[in-house]
Amino acid sequence: RQMTLSGGSAWYWIESGLFYMALHDYAQAAANFEEAVASDPRDPFAHSNLARAYRLLDRTQEALSEAKMAVKYRERNPAPWHGEVLTDVLRQRHEYGPALEACLENWKRFPKQRAGFLYPLIELYCIEGKWEQAMEKIGELYPEKSKEYVSAAVRTYCLSGFWKQAARYVRFCYPGAGFGLAELHSRMAKLYWHQGKLRNAVACMKSALRYQPADSPAYAEYCMQAADIWFYLGKKEKAAAMVRKAYPKEESGKREKPAGLQDLRQLYEYGTRCLYRGELSEALAVAEYMETNP
Question: What is the pTM of this model?
Fold first, then answer.
């Protein structure tokens, strides 16, 4: 507040707006970004941040106008951020063709940062039914037998609904790319999960956990993946057992609830663990809190 009151430049208002964005107070953030635009109508960051705030407030028409203004003035302060915000706004408006064009413009302008654009680009290509172009972009970025290439290719097949091709790619290409057996079986479980073949998914997760050492960093993640499947099969005791394996400290009274707004993803995961353990009142309290802080 002292920064904002002591100066009239756009960046005073931008920094203040970013502070409110971090607090998830999008209305106040938008008000500050509006002041930034008024202070310097040609500042692309003022427009792109205002577009982002409007998008989170579901004011998508105003968000689109601001995002276009940011792109118009981006030569003054070139950054991929402006194109990314425009892409996000267009996606929220279900304007996938223009969103794809905006993403491709970033791809062309910022070749050193293409890895960060790849997965949004793959998703847009697949939505438009252009999975072959997505595969071409993956090939522009990574060698064909690399982990990165194989992961992105599987993602492309999944988004296009080519489940058999995705499964074949995992079985035959994961080992050659350097993935372990635990990773292979975990990925196969996810493929079965998305197709609703939960019993096949269970069998794969049993194999994944057999190959994954209990003291490895990924063990808890695999246990929770198994817990998801058991819970939706109605096997609540087995789901609870997997949670206990993943988070043994929470069973010994050392449970720590995430701090709230700064850790919404962690809070969601905490609520899921409570649900799977049968602690319904705590899970409901987390759900109600998150519903009021979307």
Answer: 0.84
